[in-house]
Amino acid sequence: MKQKHASIPIFVPHFACPNHCVFCNQKRISGASQPPSDLYGFLKAAAENLSSRFSEVDIAFFGGSFTGIPKPEMIHYLSAAKRIREEFPQITGIRLSTRPDYINEEILHLLLSYGVTAVELGVQSLDDGVLSLSERGHTAADTFRAVECLKSFPFELILQLMPGLPGDTGETIRKTAEQTVLLHPDGVRIYPCVVLRDTPLAKAYLRGDFSPLTVEEAVEISADLCTLFRANRIKILRVGLHSSDLVQNHGVLAGPFHPAFGELTEQVLYFRQICRLLENRLLSGRKQAEILVAPGERSKATGQKRKNLILLQERYGVEFSVRESESVLPGDVILSFLL
Ligand code: SF4
């Protein structure tokens, strides 16, 4: 049986980005990779390989602000992607990421004419103070304007958030998340801010002028955001940075990077959900309980090194175990007391 979904990632360098976001290492990004010189040939080989194994494949341009690259180059990339999409029915989408201030109607008409299906917007924060301290070079108003413009086109809209930037507080992060909900995106990606080497943020960190979130803080914040977005039926495409070469190649100086960041967040969500179920339950005399979860969810409910089960036992004095059951939906939990 074919697997459902795969992506063909194309790294688009951003040599001449005029912006100076404090968290970005342009040298590392632009030096990390180049798009293949024969992009059509590369895409064709990838499509032939993947289309026999996956029912849906998308072409994903990432690595910079796609709509900020010179128009002839943009058209060169888009033409190759469009041609492949026409030749392979399994290629169901073309996605790209960009900045809010690089969106206008003319560009969106161009993207649409080449069959782009999803636009990801690097929002990072909706607090002007945080955006200014992060030297993003745009304001929250630019994001609102870009989202309004995007909403009049049939693209899937994904917003990328970066909690933990300079100037961020619990309050600014919460407000950004609440405003994000009001923008009604189709989905979000949550990338807590890490300190990359050779960036202005790294210098600020080494001077003692910037303290990144810890992994634990970032996981708790991400779990709060996931709860809010899921409650509003906004899908979450990713939590935490990819273990890409950029990160593994000693790129991270400090901050909340963990190779299993998304899994840690899911573990916290399970812990909170189980605690909610146990609230107001009469536990006196109970000694053992079983937590039923959907197939494949056992490790998330158990937690790394059984952390969730240990914390639950400390808190409730009951010994918990986890079992997978076909009768439980993904994300749901059923509790049953054994003794
Ligand atoms: S994050 Fe994007 S917009 Fe900001 S400096 Fe880096 S490449 Fe440019």
Give keywords.
339 residues; alpha/beta; TIM Barrel; GMP Synthetase, Chain A, domain 3; 2 domains; seven-stranded parallel beta sheet; three-stranded mixed beta sheet; globular; binds iron/sulfur cluster
Account of the protein in words:
- The chain has 339 residues and is an alpha/beta fold.
- The chain folds into 2 domains: 3-259, TIM Barrel, CATH 3.20.20.70; 281-337, K homology (KH) domain (GMP Synthetase, Chain A, domain 3, 2-Layer Sandwich).
- The chain is 41% helix and 20% strand.
- It contains 13 helices and 12 strands.
- It has helices at 26-32, 39-51, 71-87, 105-113, 128-133, 140-151, 170-182, 200-207, 215-231, 245-248, 261-278, 298-302, 307-316; strands at residues 3-11, 54-62, 91-98, 118-124, 156-161, 187-190, 195-196, 235-239, 252-254, 288-293, 319-324, 334-337.
- The strands form 3 sheets. A 7-stranded parallel beta sheet has the order 1-2-3-4-5-6-8. The protein has a 3-stranded mixed beta sheet with strand order 11-10-12. A two-stranded antiparallel sheet has the order 7-9.
- Helix 2 (39-51) runs parallel beside helix 3 and helix 7 (170-182) runs parallel beside helix 9 (215-231).
- The longest helix has 18 residues, at 261-278.
- The radius of gyration is 22 Å and the shape is globular.
- The mean pLDDT is 91.
- Bound molecules: iron/sulfur cluster (SF4).
